[in-house]
């Protein structure tokens, strides 16, 4: 492994809650989102031993910023966690990539000299703040100009996933096989204790609640399509209606937090960096297909880093829907997509673990840092598709 410079942005700690079912009755439903995020912040401070008064900023991702997640949840959570009142916080929304974007903003601030210590975090309680609830009746978040530009109409993410499955000729069997594999890997990682060092149990929940050991292609085959709609079926006759609850990420609750410092600060405080933020990138993509941004984002971050696909030891490609990862693998790996997939989401992904929207970027980063450490690997690449047609990509290097 290489060393690190004084101005490098290095990760010195990363922690997450277990992911709970995002519905009433889920293990984290009774925990208010600000308290859920405060738990990860408090645990991160405890594990790193850093005086919270030294934290220059807390940047947290949250997607549905309404109700229990309104009024700048980053600031509310850090105060709830007992941080000094002098510590500021801000909340960002880049849809599913919100806390991955928070990590990028934090790293960029360190590299620019604006921060010495910053926490990038994220939270989403989908059981308490339902997805889409920030769009009020009668409101028009798109505006007349954007609506005119896409006059045929944009579509929900589930329809985008169906369009991707059709464009890349992905069969129901392929989607279900991938999804069963996600549960198998996540169940094995849980059983083997591979998540133990990254988890901060809360509310009696010690492990991820959604993982279903023993999930098989046969059990998934019995599920009905989740997004069938007569109007969309008429508009897109190419869709075969392959996307089900079993090959999609479930509604989820959770939080995660990552501490990033400059290399100089890590040395001064005697902190042991786990990885450095090597390169970041963000792209926009076709908002109709919406979820394909992971392909150009991966290409961009590799090009910017001066690395190739073969240089990357582990990939985390967010499993919003199985077609997202399989289309990415087909484009990036070509005929070797099956070999590439062996390096992807090695401890399972969002289909099994869950996808608490605003928290997922930081959750995945925590899992990726942990997996690189456990395997003695060097480079990890994380990428996430995002609502509206965007994607973040981040390369980290284990130290």
UniProtKB/TrEMBL annotation:
Residues 10-262 form the Thiolase N-terminal domain. GO terms for molecular function: acyltransferase activity, transferring groups other than amino-acyl groups. InterPro entries: Thiolase, Thiolase-like, Thiolase_C, Thiolase_CS, Thiolase_N. The keyword Acyltransferase applies. The active site is at 96 (acyl-thioester intermediate), 355 (proton acceptor), 385 (proton acceptor). It comes from Mycolicibacterium diernhoferi. CDD domains: thiolase (cd00751). Keywords: Acyltransferase, Transferase. It comes from the Bacteria. This is Acetyl-CoA C-acyltransferase. Transmembrane segments: none annotated. The keyword Transferase applies. Pfam families: Thiolase_C (PF02803), Thiolase_N (PF00108). Belongs to the thiolase-like superfamily. Thiolase family. Residues 271-398 form the Thiolase C-terminal domain.
């Amino acid at each position: 492994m290489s060393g690190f410079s004084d101005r490098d942005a290095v990760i010195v700690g990363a922690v997450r809650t277990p992911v709970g079912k995002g519905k009433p009755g889920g293990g984290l439903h009774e925990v208010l989102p600000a308290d859920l995020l405060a738990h990860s912040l408090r645990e991160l401070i405890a594990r790193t031993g850093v005086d919270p008064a030294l934290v220059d900023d807390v940047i947290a991702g949250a997607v549905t910023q309404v109700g229990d997640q309104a009024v700048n949840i980053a600031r509310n959570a850090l105060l709830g966690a007992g941080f000094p009142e002098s510590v500021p916080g801000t909340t960002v929304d880049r849809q599913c990539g919100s806390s991955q974007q928070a990590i990028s903003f934090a790293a960029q601030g360190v590299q620019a000299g604006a921060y010495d210590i910053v926490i990038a975090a994220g939270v989403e309680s989908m059981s308490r703040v339902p997805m889409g609830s920030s769009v009020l009746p009668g409101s028009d978040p798109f505006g007349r100009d954007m609506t005119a530009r896409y006059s045929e109409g944009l579509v929900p993410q589930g329809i985008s996933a169906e369009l991707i499955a059709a464009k890349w000729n992905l069969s129901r069997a392929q989607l279900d096989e991938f999804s069963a594999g996600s549960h198998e890997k996540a169940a094995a990682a849980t059983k083997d204790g591979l998540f133990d060092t990254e988890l901060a149990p809360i509310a009696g929940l010690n492990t991820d609640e959604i993982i279903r050991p023993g999930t098989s292609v046969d059990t998934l085959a019995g599920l009905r399509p989740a997004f069938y709609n007569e109007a969309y079926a008429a508009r897109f006759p190419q869709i075969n209606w392959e996307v089900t609850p079993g090959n999609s990420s479930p509604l989820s609750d959770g939080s995660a937090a990552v501490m990033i410092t400059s290399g100089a600060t890590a040395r001064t405080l005697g902190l042991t960096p786990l990885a450095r933020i090597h390169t970041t990138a963000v792209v926009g993509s076709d908002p109709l297909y919406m979820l394909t941004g992971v392909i150009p984002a991966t290409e961009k971050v590799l090009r910017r880093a001066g690395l190739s696909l073969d240089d990357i030891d582990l990939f985390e490609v967010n499993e919003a829907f199985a077609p997202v990862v399989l289309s990415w693998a087909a484009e990036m790996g070509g005929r070797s997509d099956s070999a590439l997939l062996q390096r992807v989401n090695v401890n399972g992904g969002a289909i099994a673990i869950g996808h608490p929207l605003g928290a997922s970027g930081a959750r995945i980063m925590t899992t990726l840092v942990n997996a690189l450490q456990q395997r003695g690997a060097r480079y990890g690449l994380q990428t996430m598709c995002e609502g509206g047609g965007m994607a973040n990509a981040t390369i980290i290097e284990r130290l």
